[in-house]
Amino acid sequence: MITKLLIANRGEIACRIIRTARAMGIATVAVYSDADARALHVRAADEAVHIGPAPAAESYLVGEKIIAAARQTGAGAIHPGYGFLSENAGFAQAVIDAGLTWVGPKPSSIEAMGLKDAAKKLMREAGVPVTPGYEGEDQSPERLKREADAIGYPVLIKAVAGGGGKGMRKVDAAADFEAALESCRREARASFGNDEVLLEKWITSPRHIEVQVFGDSHGNVVHLFERDCSLQRRHQKVIEEAPAPGMDAGTRAEICAAAVRAARAVDYEGAGTIEFIADASEGLRADRIFFMEMNTRLQVEHPVTEEITGVDLVEWQLRIAGGEPIPLAQEELRIEGHAIEARLYAEDPASGFLPSIGRLRVFNLPEDVRVDTGVTTDDTVQPFYDPMIAKVIATAPDRMAAIEELTEALDSAQVWPVKTNAAFLRECLLAQDFRAGALTTGFIGDHIDELVRKGEPSPSALYTAAMARDEIDGSYHHPTWFGLEGFRLNAPHRSPVALAHEGTVHVVDICANQDDADVQFLEWAAMDGGLVVFEAGHALRFDLPRPAAGAASAADGAILAPMPGKVIALDVAEGDAVAAGQRLMVLEAMKMEHALTAPFDGKVTELAASQGAQVQVEAVLAIVEPREA
């Protein structure tokens, strides 16, 4: 039995492994780079060893340093997590040669599945269905072109040593083949030091289905059913679920049996995943599901399998590495319920999914679903590593209930100032085709314009910001004059508040919004002289303009210029009736357009602005008289 374990990884997966090890009574050792000195996985472990500078190539990818850390601390076993050195057969062998326990498959199994062309040949011999294609040794451009023509376009060129979508090109026509081949080989050489490729028939309605397998040193192999990982962006998984939507019992039995045959073919031990590509043009059918590759490690999406089977896969890894047999027989494993996982990334979908880094001043995720994370409030998202900061997993009796639960969880996510893809994930879950189970690996690309929406303040967000500003300004602490702002003897009480969001000034009538049953008070946080309102996965920043600072004020209906500028649009005339929130005019200042709106329902009784006019800060541009009750 393992008594002390070193985790050769960082972030979320390191924390995940530590959690199970602690429950099993196993002491843990973390390793960390300069950038991770204060990271959560370092704080969570019993011991921690520094292994080098921030770049992974100088720390987490240096096997000698990791083995030395294990010897230094007396750790008898090493768990590689996923990524980094987890599928490196040379590192696995070095761990074993050092007299340590490797928590993973045999190096020979890793090697057998490491090259896609060799793996496909092996799978074909084992009776596992393989996508039509070419994996021959003749790598001349002429031979590859002839094979592609014979397969029929579109075809997929894949680097034999590839992964993560690198070294992969789809070719739609014969005339494009040579250029795509050279581009693919160039990327493969740079990424893997190996420019050999294979060819596959392109599947027109592809779904990514994978099967979790486990083997032990006693000759046992079982599967823990399938997962659907079809929602991908640029070949990177975004949302995963188990079981796969639309999977019938007969097809499940065949694909899972094929996965077990695949694992047996390489004498597999530990956790592994057999990945299949399914032609879903006529639904999921066993004769249209083909082997793609095997991941010889734990997968990022393993929690959804844990949730539907009740099995702790990390515990199984540790027990099997310690020489124990698989804890359950195949007939004892069952599917219960449905689980969906969303990967929360520190990135900005509105800016082309660019990574977002910095200190997490606010980091609150829901507590009523499973959250696997490697960060907490005040931790820093580093530029050196994968931008995934958490996985949010919802489990329910059925798929639709799980979708609803995960949607609600993403609604309540609060992260600032680091940007995340929470709202994007939420839109994926709300998409009609996703809910109907009409999935393909091209789903996100086909729907990207619908899924990436800019966060605009809703009535609830504006109301929350206005109420929050009132609190920040101290109004609640001045009962003598609280409630008198906007007071008139001949009209209902009004309480207008000015707010600025991304250059646009909004004047919000608190009292009017209180009468709207659809307006809800949301979560918010005061930040750097402004405030942030959290809504539907978005974090909306509001500045708090005041007349003294050159901002708009609409107390008692006076519309003031928030700063010096030019009136570029005038939407009303003197005497016009207006509704609360209606745009009155647009002021251009500091290269931004500021829409000035009516603070309440009423009438424009004075209009001092004209289109094209230059105005000074705090100039009265208009006066709106409230509508009499």
From TrEMBL:
The lineage of its organism: Bacteria, Pseudomonadati, Pseudomonadota, Alphaproteobacteria, Sphingomonadales. Gene3D superfamilies: 2.40.50.100, ATP-grasp fold, B domain (3.30.470.20). This is ATP-grasp domain-containing protein. Residues 549-625 form the Lipoyl-binding domain. Signal peptide: none annotated. CDD domains: biotinyl_domain (cd06850). The keyword ATP-binding applies. Keywords: ATP-binding, Biotin, Ligase, Nucleotide-binding. Its cofactor is biotin. Pfam families: Biotin_carb_C, Biotin_carb_N, Biotin_lipoyl, CPSase_L_D2. InterPro entries: ATP-grasp, BC-like_N, Biotin_BS, Biotin_carboxylase_complex, Biotin_carboxylation_dom, Biotin_COase_C, Biotin_lipoyl, CPAse_ATP-bd. Residues 1-449 form the Biotin carboxylation domain. Residues 120-322 form the ATP-grasp domain.
